[in-house]
Design brief:
The strands form three sheets. The protein has a four-stranded antiparallel β-sheet. It has a two-stranded antiparallel ribbon with strand order 5-6. A two-stranded antiparallel sheet has the order 7-8. The chain starts with a helix and ends in a 9-residue tail after the last helix. Strand 1 and strand 2 form a beta hairpin. It is built from 19 helices and eight strands. The protein is globular. Helix 10 packs across helix 11, helix 11 crosses helix 12 and helix 17 crosses helix 18. The longest helix is centred in the middle third of the chain and has 64 residues.
Length: about 450
């Protein structure tokens, strides 16, 4: 039964320490992300047991409550309303000192960097999904020769966001690093401006879009540092005039005569490396990627892969990594099914599996991770084995020349079928992906049934 978002939000607030304990509020596709002044004030056991809460993740200075897709956006809106309508900036300012102190104590530079990259790209995922689905639908219509009067319009709708994604990356980068978001977008827009084709750098003419999202990120980051430098040195009376001008000029010139070229080389290297990895060591690469993805999801670090997926989609029209990583969810589903069969007298765990399994089949793994496999221990490891087997299956076909990709990021499991693409056609890509899912289900089930449960877990 669907939980009322207002009731869930009202129940959550006292369990996380009340309004005074909240320093920031945000959400991604499945998680409500809270900054807390004092994490010790959280009633974690009661929070985990709350209907509607699928799991809890503590990641550095971020307290993440897993609510599931769709529900999280509605609950977040109600949660913010309960805080007396403060803005995100007001919440952040109120807890800035405590948050920074905890960040210094608990966060390594590597984790902070990954989290910031995720903060830049996670807000883009809904648009990537929507445009990716429309691009896949448009491709089907074109291949079938249907609705020729409609396909040009669909193509424009589906492609417009990707054509300007650099601007949004620049905006979010400046916002994340403390600059003016519009200046970040202005500098990043240089990357996709058609007029750059008239500019020559390193003896070669530039190409619009050269460097892609990586170039946009680097340009906006440089622009943010230039802006901060100007704010400290430009007289207040001239700040409104000189700071934006110098920011766009200095960062813009550096982007044209350096960053676009370097980022373009890096982007090309990423595409080349991904293709080489799969065509040369596909089975092994699939085994490793499929087997390690669940731990990344558990730690919340899987969002750091978004720039790589986005770069591959920009270059090739699809990312070849996502279908392999999606096999981790298949292993998780197979493991959960085995637990359901083995623990036939455990009403509680079987109820959890019945409610979480539909989301798992659609690629949302957190409910099964935090409600089933992690609490039991071994099934988490055997789920990883299932994911590794499914990844190896898809990798074998990549070695044979039949690569499977996804035109957008976000969905996995069965929800990824509308987004599939590949060099051998949609039918072959769908068949290979389905084979990988079935392999992941089967191996996850068998290994969990055989060795994934201890004598204490199993009724015998």
């Amino acid at each position: 039964m669907r939980k009322d978002p207002a009731e869930v939000a009202a129940a959550l607030l006292p369990l996380v320490g009340g309004p005074a304990n909240i320093t920031s509020v945000a959400h991604c596709m499945t998680r409500l992300r809270l900054g807390l002044a004092d994490p010790s004030r959280v009633a974690e056991e009661r929070l985990r047991a709350l209907p509607g809460v699928l799991g809890v993740v503590v990641d550095g200075d971020s307290y993440q409550i897993v609510l599931g897709p769709g529900a999280v956006a509605r609950v977040t809106a109600e949660f913010e309303a309960l805080l007396g309508q403060p803005t995100a900036d007001e919440l952040a300012a109120r807890g800035a000192e405590l948050k920074e102190a905890r960040r210094q104590r608990n966060a390594t530079p590597g984790k902070l960097a990954l989290r910031r990259v995720a903060n830049i790209f996670v807000p883009l995922i809904p648009a990537l999904i929507g445009c990716g689905v429309l691009a896949g639908l448009n491709g089907l219509l074109i291949n079938a020769g249907w609705l020729p009067a409609v396909t040009p319009a669909l193509s424009a709708i589906a492609s417009a966001f990707m054509a300007l994604i650099a601007v949004f990356v620049g905006h979010n980068t400046a916002k994340e690093f403390g600059g003016t978001p519009m200046l970040g977008g202005a500098v990043a827009a240089i990357v996709v401006y058609p007029g750059v084709a008239k500019v020559t750098a390193f003896g070669l003419p530039l190409s619009p879009g050269q460097g892609g999202v990586l170039g946009a990120l680097a340009a906006a980051l440089l622009g943010t540092y230039v802006e901060k430098w100007c704010r400290r040195r430009v007289p207040p009376a001239l700040d409104v005039l000189l700071t934006p001008t110098l920011t766009v000029l200095i960062a813009g010139l550096a982007t044209l005569y350096g960053l676009m070229y370097v980022a373009g080389e890096i982007s090309t290297a990423i595409g080349t490396a991904a293709n080489w990895l799969l065509t040369t060591t596909g089975a092994f690469a699939g085994l490793i990627l499929g087997g390690l993805f669940l731990p990344l999801v558990m730690l919340g670090l899987h969002q750091a892969l978004i720039p790589i997926h986005t770069t591959l989609i920009e270059q090739q029209g699809h990312t070849v990594l996502l279908p392999i990583l999606a096999m981790a969810g298949a292993g998780q589903v197979g493991a959960a099914m085995a637990v359901y069969v083995r623990l036939r007298h455990d009403t509680s765990i079987r109820t959890t599996i019945r409610s979480a399994l539909p989301a798992g089949l659609l690629g949302v793994g957190e409910p099964l991770i935090y409600g089933v496999s992690l609490p039991l221990g071994r099934p988490f490891l055997t789920a990883c084995v299932g994911g590794a087997a499914g990844g190896a299956f898809v990798g074998v076909f990549a070695m044979l020349g039949d690569q499977v990709g996804a035109t957008a990021i976000g969905p996995s499991g069965w929800a990824l079928f509308p987004l599939l693409a590949g060099n051998a056609g949609l039918g072959v890509s769908a068949a290979i992906y389905a084979g990988g899912l079935l392999t992941g289900y089967a191996v996850g089930f068998v290994t969990t049934y055989a060795v994934g449960l201890t004598a204490t877990d199993s009724p015998g």
